Amino acid sequence: MENKIDTKPVKLTREDFESDQMVKWCPGCGDHAILRSVEAVFPTIGERLGLKKEDFVVVSGIGCSSRFPYYMNTYGFHGIHGRAAVLATGIKLTNPKLNVWVISGDGDSMAIGGNHFIHAARRNVDMNYLMFNNRIYGLTKGQYSPTTYKGQKTKTSPQGVFEEPFNPGELVIGAKGRFFARVVDTNPKLMQKTFIEAAMFKGTSIVEILANCVIFNNKTHGLITGKDTKDDYQLILEAGKPMIFGKEKNKGIILQNNKLKVVTIGEDGITEDDILVHDPTTKDAGIHMMLASMQAPDYPVALGVIRAVPEKPFEQIIWDTIEHEKEVSPYKNVDDLLNSGNTWEID
Predict the structure, then answer these.
(1) Angle 188-200/31-49 helices, nearest 10 degrees?
(2) Furthest CA-CA distance within the chain
(3) Which of 80, 57, 65, 77 has the alpha carbon at shortest distance from 34?
């Protein structure tokens, strides 16, 4: 009897992506929750995109977050400081079927890797970029990073940071990025939902994760993630729904004089109909930039998908161009090229 091979795709589980390596992050570090969330969503992403386990690739630079490839049971690439986006771009251009994930930190992304970060955003290669933002250099023991708050004292700013911090969302949108989202490490459910939306987006999806460094910058996001304050300082965005937040779900965001304003529903004649409705797909980046710029304590911090504007990804444009040139070129191989035009022999 002829043996038949079962060619049905194997159903992936979380356990398929768990590495046997010891996770060497500090107890209490927010990176643990991020790792668990990524492990949890990869099977769903694989099912939705028709991927096999070997189609996933995790790429990192240098930093606490960049240990990630060791902790995922996938193909991985641990690169040098700030160059993860470059490596991921090369991987995706070479083999577009791969599902590529970049893992980076605020220093890795926006200090030594700043140039690559903004060009990754504008170029729009179909890859997923998770940026862990704990507003400090953790692996090198507490130096200030490009996102550390102005005035904060650290090992390299004993008189306080003199510089204005970067806002990752402003950088992404200003660089013509098509997808930007933000989540907190204390909300695995929102993380997982957002990671799946990022994976489904065709193009560069950048997700900023507000992560806690329990050793060198503990509770840097405390106002946003604190048990007693988070409801009033988290605006969780959903496409097509009004921007409402607060413990009593009675606060909202309106547009007034070309600026976002926090209002209370039921006061000064404000009704739910006055509240802005979120549209992440509009090409006009004005509202998206305003949402990305909101900071506590003056505003709630916008979480979820802030911007998701569809556009053909870079690698598809490249491969379409290659196929077109192959069709129209009179040269079908190197011999055709070498034997084209005038030729001669030297005795």
Answers:
(1) 40
(2) 95
(3) 65
- Between β-strands 75-78 and 56-60, what pairing exists: parallel, antiparallel or unpaired? parallel
Question: Tens-digit pLDDT profile for the chain (347 aa)?
Answer: 455 555 566 799 999 999 999 999 999 999 999 999 999 999 999 999 999 999 999 999 999 999 999 999 999 999 999 999 999 999 999 999 999 999 999 999 999 999 999 999 999 999 999 999 999 999 999 999 999 999 999 999 999 999 999 999 999 999 999 999 999 999 999 999 999 999 999 999 999 999 999 999 999 999 999 999 999 999 999 999 999 999 999 999 999 999 999 999 999 999 999 999 999 999 999 999 999 999 999 999 999 999 999 999 999 999 999 999 999 998 888 888 888 877 778 88
DSSP states along 133-166: E-SSBTTTTSB--TTSPTT--BTTBTT---SPPP
Q: 341 burial class (0-12, 13-18, 19+ CB within 10 angstroms)?
A: exposed
Nearest to 55, CA basis, from 16, 99, 18, 101: 99
Cα separation, 280 vs 237, whole angstroms: 9
Is the separation of the CB atoms in 278 and 243 below 8 Å? yes
Q: Which CATH class is domain 14-241+279-323?
A: alpha beta
Alpha carbons 192 and 256: distance in angstroms, whole number = 33
Residue ranges of the domains in the chain?
Answer: 14-241+279-323, 242-277
Q: Is the dihedral of CA 264, 211, 166, 205 positive or negative?
A: negative
